[in-house]
Design a protein that fits this description.
Number of strands: 10
Distance between the termini: 50 Å
Shape: globular
Helix content: 40-55%
Order of helices and strands: HEHEHEHEHEEHHHEEHEEH
Structural class: alpha/beta
Strand content: 15-25%
Largest sheet: 6 strands, mixed
Length: 267
């Protein structure tokens, strides 16, 4: 998408923090990144709209956001889309985690001709290893994307399995329901362990600890991988995926309680 719409020295407006590959893709396309801070709380709509000017060729919205899990509501998205359209810019809306959110804005967004929605089989459908994602856009934009090509090819086997997943959606629905049921329990568990969890509508909860790197390493030693953010605005935060089953949730609970006791015993 960046190769299709970004021109040298043109601007892309992106909220920060978010999926780190977006800014890299803009820069690889010779664009300039303008970051709008959005750590938590309501989406900074006024700041985002005011940042869109005649140099802007792309605005990127990620909802639920990765790595915070925060969401942008539909009226806010449409306000950004309308401002972008007024200056001839496109809006990339990344809905990779939308199956876990309270609502799905896809159909409403596709009424606008300057919107590209991207989604994936990697999250709710559990097919991350297949690397199958897709874009939904108007015919003109879709033709542009076909012309520039994707970042990597998708195998026939991956496409076949993705199609099979669409034909049998009940398993995905059950998994999503379990994750949404466990998500508030994970937030409560993190609070009980002394962390400050962010409100999330994704399949993960990001929380700030007194020493996030200690937590990440401690959990890794117990065979549980979580995402850490050393040297970034999310310093001392960890992102923990909601397990989606009771056995793994119990294992996570035991590990978190164990690491809290270990941390309290440190000098």
């Amino acid at each position: 998408i960046c190769r299709a719409v970004i021109e040298p020295d043109s601007r892309a407006v992106i909220h920060d923090p978010t999926f780190e590959m977006i800014a890299r893709s803009v820069q690889l396309a010779s664009g300039v990144v303008r970051l709008i801070p959005w750590m938590d709380g309501p989406f900074p709509l006024e700041d985002c709209v005011n940042a869109i000017d005649e140099r802007t060729r792309l605005v990127v919205l990620v909802s639920p956001n990765n790595p915070t899990g925060s969401v942008i509501n539909l009226p806010e998205m449409l306000a950004v889309v309308d401002k972008a359209r007024a200056v001839g810019a496109f809006v990339l809306i990344d809905l990779a985690y939308v199956e876990f959110a309270d609502s799905d804005p896809t159909l409403s967004l596709l009424d606008r001709d300057n919107v590209v929605v991207v989604r994936t089989f990697s999250k709710a459908m559990g097919l991350a290893g297949l690397r199958v994602g897709y874009a939904i856009a108007g015919l003109q934009v879709a033709d542009w994307l076909r012309t520039v090509g994707g970042p990597y090819p998708v195998s026939a086997i991956s496409l076949t399995l993705a199609a099979r997943c669409l034909e049998e959606p009940e398993g995905t629905r059950r998994y999503v329901a379990r994750v949404c049921e466990q998500r508030p329990a994970l937030s409560a568990l993190l609070e009980a362990c002394g962390a400050c969890p962010m409100e999330s509508q994704a399949n993960f909860v990001t929380a700030r600890f007194e020493d996030g790197e200690f937590v990440r390493v401690s959990l890794a030693r117990r065979g549980i991988a979580v995402r850490g953010y050393t040297g970034s605005p999310l310093e001392d935060c960890v992102r923990i995926t909601v397990p989606g089953n009771e056995r793994e949730f119990d294992r996570l609970r035991e590990a978190l309680h164990a690491q809290v006791g270990t941390q309290e015993s440190q000098p």
